[in-house]
Design goal:
Blueprint (H helix, E strand, L loop, with lengths): L1 E6 L11 H14 L3 E8 L2 H4 L6 E6 L7 E8 L2 E7 L1 H4 L17 H18 L8 E5 L6 H8 L5 E5 L7 E2 L20 E2 L2 E3 H8 L2 E4 L2 H6 L10 H6 L4 E3 L27 H12 L9 E8 L5 H12 L4 E8 L1 H13 L3 E5 L3 H10 L2 E4 L9 H7 L3 E5 L2 H6 L5 H6 L5 E3 L4 H15 L2 H13 L5 H16 L1
Parallel strand pairs: 1-2, 1-6, 2-5, 6-7, 7-11, 11-12, 13-14, 13-16, 14-15, 16-17, 17-18
Antiparallel strand pairs: 3-4, 4-5, 8-10, 9-10
Helix pairs in contact: 4-5, 9-12, 10-16
Length: about 475
């Protein structure tokens, strides 16, 4: 059995701000069937420690980036979990990255350097009687792990997964000392990035293998348009870069058993009761001739929300509707609320509600994902699982997981949704019009729904790919 330490800044269901948490939470269970034992290392946020009943202390540190700390271990549901109990770093109000006012914590570099340092300590010395054969870090928060492993002399392979290359974890070089880094390695081939210290670059240059969350995104990362300044680093390391698409938890997201739904179902016919309930919940008219579209998203430019606002007339003029759940950019929140106030076919709820997101997947007839870039995306996978036809931009994992309703795909009966490119408001408007045309043909629409519900969206294939990657590293 291969032993793997997963190093992450968030992990569902304990703490979550995005898809990284879903991956970190689902991968250990998926890998168990592949002969792998994955344990997860998290910062000891309040929400994490509150779930670690009966935790055992496996290590103690007198001074971990400014104060004492303990490494705790507990089985939390299906997760074998290590948490760093360090009050000076993690015992505070707010989220994992932001204070209650929505600003980055000033000591985030040290908070996540501590995570990486403890990961390196486990790689070098083990944790109690357990020792990993592979360390798997996620995004910049785990980026310094190979630097600390190098300093400690650990001889364990390190895998770095990019969930979103836009975040680098950069900091001024004056903090090299407080981060416990080797100043000699502040150079281009290690963690120096345009005069700054970059946690993400440290992880990319120090990794034995680099993965990202879809094949298309792996290719996009090598381009100036999508590399977000790291394209040169990644082009230099493209020989160890690969894409493994994310899966979803098909037990938690199962329309046949989902307790959040108005009515469970296993075929598209069963969606009707949920669609009626969702219209009532959002206060939308129940006599619309077009599709009820849903969107569950962070509200940002990356997610293409501004494009959607501009393109919405193409949907509304055809009798379509939109129910939206999300939060983010205050300007976009305001625009959406104003739009809903003047258009009876649009309803907006600002915030996040997990149970409501399930009801939206079941009640929606189409799910919109108009992202300018999307490393993998999970909402389109939830949509497929629930028979909710995805309309997506042609980028990243959206390109890899949705089969476009082209004439050829429709003729062969294999289409699962609608893709659009280029990623602009005009193209999105045309795609919304196409969606309405497809909806107007009940036989074609039912085929799209059935095809989606048959798609493999779980972790089985991806877990096998990760297991093969780990085995290759362990056997050398």
């Amino acid at each position: 059995m291969t032993t793997i330490l997963s190093v992450a800044s968030e992990c569902a269901p304990l703490v979550k701000t995005g898809g990284l948490a879903d991956v970190a939470g689902a991968l250990p269970g998926a890998l168990a069937g592949e002969g792998c034992e994955m344990r997860t290392l998290l910062p000891g946020y309040r929400a994490v420690l509150a779930r670690m009943d009966g935790a055992a202390e496996v290590a103690r540190f007198d001074d971990l980036f400014g104060g004492p700390a303990r490494l705790l271990f507990a089985q939390v549901g299906p997760l074998a979990l290590y948490a760093i109990e360090a009050a000076h770093l993690y015992d505070r109000e707010g989220g994992p990255y932001l204070d209650p006012q929505g600003r980055d914590w000033a000591d985030n570099p040290e908070r996540f350097a501590a995570l990486a340092w403890v990961a390196a300590h486990i790689a070098t010395h083990g944790a109690g009687d357990w020792r990993p054969e592979v360390v798997h870090g996620h995004d910049w928060q785990a980026g310094f792990t190979p630097e600390y492993m190098h300093a400690m002399g650990a001889r364990v392979p390190f895998v770095m997964t990019i969930h979103n290359v836009a975040f680098h974890g950069n900091v001024e070089p004056g903090r090299i000392g407080s981060l416990g880094l080797d100043p000699w390695r502040f150079r281009q081939e290690h963690f120096e990035y345009w005069g700054q210290v970059s946690a993400l670059k440290a992880g990319l240059t120090g990794a034995d293998r680099i993965t990202t969350v879809s094949r298309t995104y792996a290719h996009e990362l090598l381009t100036d348009a999508f590399g977000m300044g790291m394209e040169g680093v990644l082009r230099a390391r493209k020989g160890v870069l690969s894409g493994i698409v994310n899966g979803i938890d098909t037990d938690a997201w199962n329309p046949a058993t989902d307790p959040a739904l108005a009515a469970t179902y296993s075929t598209p016919r069963g969606k009707a009761a949920n669609t009626a309930a969702l219209r009532a919940e959002f206060g939308l008219p129940d006599d619309a001739p077009g599709p009820l579209c849903v969107l569950v998203s962070r509200l940002s430019g990356q997610k293409g929300i501004d494009l959607l606002i501009e393109a919405l007339p193409a949907l509304l003029e055809r009798g379509g509707q939109l129910a939206l759940l999300g939060s983010g950019d205050p300007h976009l929140e305001s625009l959406l609320k104003d739009y809903a106030a003047t258009h009876p076919g649009v309803a907006v709820k600002i915030g996040y509600d997990e149970a409501l997101s399930h009801r939206m997947m079941a009640g929606g007839e189409a799910i919109l994902v108009p992202s300018r870039f999307e490393p993998c995306g999970l909402t389109q996978l939830y949509g497929l699982r629930y028979g909710t036809v995805p309309l997506v931009a042609l980028t990243g994992g959206l390109a890899d997981t949705v089969i476009n309703a082209s004439p050829a795909a429709l003729a062969r009966g294999v289409a699962t949704g609608v893709q659009f490119f280029p990623i602009d408001a005009l193209s999105l408007g045309n795609a919304l019009a196409q969606l309405c045309d497809l909806y107007a043909d009940p036989k074609t629409w039912a085929t799209l729904q059935r095809n989606g519900m048959k798609q493999p969206v779980g972790w089985e294939t991806s877990a096998a790919a990760y297991a093969a990657l780990y085995a290759e590293l362990v056997t050398g």
